[in-house]
Amino acid sequence: MELILASASPRRRELLGYFGLPFQVIPAPGPEVPPDEADAGRTAWFLSQQKARQVAKAHPEALVIGADTVVGVNGQILGKPRDEADAKRMLRLLSGREHQVYTGVSLVRYGVYPDIHSYNNTSMEMTRVFFREMTDAEIDAYVATGEPMDKAGAYGYQGRAGMYVERIEGDFFNVVGLPLCLLGEMLSEAGVKLH
Length: 195
Known about the structure:
Layout: E1 3-5, H1 10-17, E2 24-25, H2 40-58, E3 63-73, E4 76-78, H3 84-94, E5 98-109, E6 119-131, H4 136-144, E7 165-169, H5 172-176, H6 180-189
Parallel strand pairs: 1-2, 1-3
Antiparallel strand pairs: 3-4, 3-5, 5-6, 6-7
Helix pairs in contact: 3-4
């Protein structure tokens, strides 16, 4: 079965590679349009579906993996920062407190041929992340590295921001952008042989 990752994220590409399965990377072509008045978890779930469906329409014979990661803190949704000022704002919100990282994962296959059945499954993982207090100087220096600019919540736990994380509760890979245990279960349910 052809497998497609509907994401431009180099981190997701690397993590999916851990399964040892052949796959293509075809990012979703359209803009991300979050649902109105949804919380962080629902937004991640919805956007993962949106990405997978966009790519599956053009590749109905393939099983398409869509994923989206969103950070939630005090009822606010933190996606990717718009600019450096937005990244600094987000990091100040996260400093010294707990937040939640949600990743929605969708598997979609449209199946236009009689021997290929359609498939649609979406699930979500949540991990609690606890940041230590960050000084303004630390926030400025971290944002100046450029690392926060393409990441939900304006930080990369697997990178320099790891020094600000006191602990996590849940799946480490979820915080990086692709919960491997959940994805493995979903691929197995879809009939993909993982061994």
